[in-house]
Design goal:
Length: 572
Amino acid sequence: MINLYLAVACLLLANVNGAHGDDEMMRNLRNGANASLPANPNRFYVLGTGGDISKEHEAEEVTASSGGSVAMTVGNGARKTLVVELPPQANAQGLRNKMEAKGFTLEVDQPLYSIPTIEGDDPGQGGRRLAQSTPWGVLNVFQNDVTPILEENLPEMQHSICIIDSGYEIVHPDLPKDAINADPGQGLGASYPYNRDGCEHGTHVAGTISAIDNDQGVIGVFPGASDMKIVRVFRDSCGWQYSSRLLDAANHCQTAGAKIITMSLGGGSPSTTERDTFDNLVDDGILVIAAAGNNGNSINYPAYYNSIVSVGATDVNDNIASWSTYNDQVDVSAPGVGIESTTGESGYSTYSGTSMATPHVSGIAMLLWNRNPTCTNLQIRHALQETAEDRGDPGRDDKYGHGIIRFHDADAWLLANCPAPGPTPAPVPTPPTPLCGTNPAATPNNDFAKMEKLATTQTIAEVGLVANRAIAFVATAATTGMMLLMVFRVPTTDAEANVARLPMLYSGVVATALVLVGGRPTATVQKIAPRKLPPPHHSRLLSRLVLVETIIATAILIAAAISANVTAAAIR
């Protein structure tokens, strides 16, 4: 293998100077651009930085001192991981030693491959279909006892899917037009945009999931599914891609809001970084589904990780395909032999493989989750496993997993086991109009705002208490204002008028004291809310005290007003 890398390097060096040759090869290998070039064995994840910027800089310096560079980063924050590389012909042991001396560990960034279709299928575009047909695989997963019953009441999209594959021919008349690029770098004008698919693998997968019910071509498991997200990791020749690119794609899916990730790809080597990334995605509430592989008794990653739903392939007679990968991590099986779906800009082709089985499971999972939106990702997975039709050895076995998925049984299981949707929240009451142009939200002693908050969180007794306090406050403040108006009506030039002010000013002091002590509902509420409420008899007692305070304040102010008028009349 090393000789092959050297041969490629020498071929490039023969045409240009050495430095440029290395740069060109590195660019191709960095992007997984050329299917004829093998993956760079000197491309690594750097483990141990933990998202620490100073440690990242340290790892970058070590890489540069060994003649390497940073290829990309995967993830964010504490989950951020550097990906570094050396030229393919370099000896990486020196870099390993330097990294280990700094407390870092290198892990190979493994290549992954688009799982090829099985020979004997129609690889062409198959021509335009003038009439619509339902592929046997779609009928199979909707089987109810003996007769397939397709789901006609399609739910509103709340849990969308993200397809990581070779692209999506958005111009195909049988595919939804609102699918978007989850990776911002794959939009219109990009070198390899999400909405093109020279490989045709991703478009075939997409058709099984979402082909439109439109009287032509085929129909998908969730016809016309909206808001699908697409990330393109394979180019027109299909070929291979680095594990780091897959993880970057999965993170883009999450950022774009997808709740299901489907992958019909894989490789033969595990990765701690890869495993941890998918574990984190599942912990974050995402359902991840992947093809088991087409290699019989073997192991394929990422499908073999515990957190991922691994899918095997069955034929029209519900037998497991002879080439379907089997091991102790296969979860469920689905139709994957002779599956017709969309390819090219307007065509259709029949493919076989666990790549074709996986979108049946992904599409059913999306339909189930949107019909039962309160369920979790783990409940959706459990429903698929618990209700699968048992085949092969009794119970779970390594070939079928738990069995062949059945939509109607899984839907019934979720209906019985997921929490029912909660009641529609009551509308928030509109705050009362502020008195005298003041803003209650900006007033420290905001009784009305406090009442509004307590109305939704506290007991009726507590709200009644606050209401009485608020009434006392408003009554006292209003009568105080009336008294002040009367004070200012008294002539201020007459010396005897100053004598008349004394009882009125005294009344104002008393009224103000009542406002501060007895008419402050917020002070009372702060003492009792929100956790420890007063017993009902305490609430009644406080309400009566407030009433007495209000009567006293009103009497004092009325007496002050009468005194002021009498005194003023005598002076005049």
